[in-house]
Amino acid sequence: MSDTSARLSLPFILPSQSQKHVTHNEALQILDAVTQLVLESSLADPPASPAEGAAYAIATGATGAWAGQDGKIAAWQDSAWTFLAPQAGWLACLRSTGKVMLYGTNGWQDLPLPSIVSVSQLGVGATPDSTNRFSISSPASLFNNAGGDHQLKINKAAAGNTASLLFQSGWSGRAEMGLAGSDSFAIKVSPDGGTWLTALSVTGAGQITQPNKPAARAQLSASTLAITNGLATGFDNLALTQGGVALSGSIAGGGQALAVPVEGLYAVSLSIAGTSASSYAASLVSDAGTELLKLAPGTVSAFDSNRMVLAKLSAGTLLSVKHSGTATLGASGRTVALDVFLL
Known about the structure:
eleven-stranded antiparallel sheet, 3 domains, 1 helix, five-stranded antiparallel sheet, 26 strands
């Protein structure tokens, strides 16, 4: 029979041994050092004033009283160092970090997570809460494939619920994409986190709508209108409008200018109908004086003219109609109509 135990090398009290208490106390000292093991830190140089019972993981290149003891545990007991060889599978709390460490072939390592784990909350560089049960604070996040495809799945309970990605600025929402309150895919934006506008919506059948894309039909609704040379007119009715297109200001010959809300490439169509004209022409112009298109019926007894062009317009551009020659407008209930929509 060996004189020491198999795992911790605790000395046994022999049958004929004198001063049995010495052997017993030595075994207790070993147990006191390794039971509920706490390591102050990992060092290569012995601390100058260790506390009684303090234990350290001896790093590579140990010096002084620890020389030649690399990889062992140094425990300060009764004003002297006791050295213990850790065994694979030992656990210790590293006081300097608060982590539980596992001893193995590569020395002391962080305790690995199980292959399958279920937790109520998890934070990575961040603090989770009851709503954000998984929180991460990082310059970037990577979701990589495992040899092929990769899908990020966001599921909701019912059609009226939300499954979406929300983009914030200063913790205030600015854009959202996903299934927000319906089963149609939508992209929404907000200027302030409170008011939300749908930029694009796609139904389950694949139909796409853009309910806030600038578009309008503006009309000058007089039944007849006598045109004199140099007269300028606007519009007094928006038969259709969306996306912020509006009437603005007043035009001397009647109506208001049509205001474009955002810069972009627009399809612009002007239609004018009349019962007579003499050397008559009409130009769609911007408030900067740029002629966008021109209709020139000339001298006729009746006319119904229209033309469409593409035009690059700036935000806030005002559109009106400038007339030359003379004419009487009004036919089939129409005088002047302007269609604009952002491409």
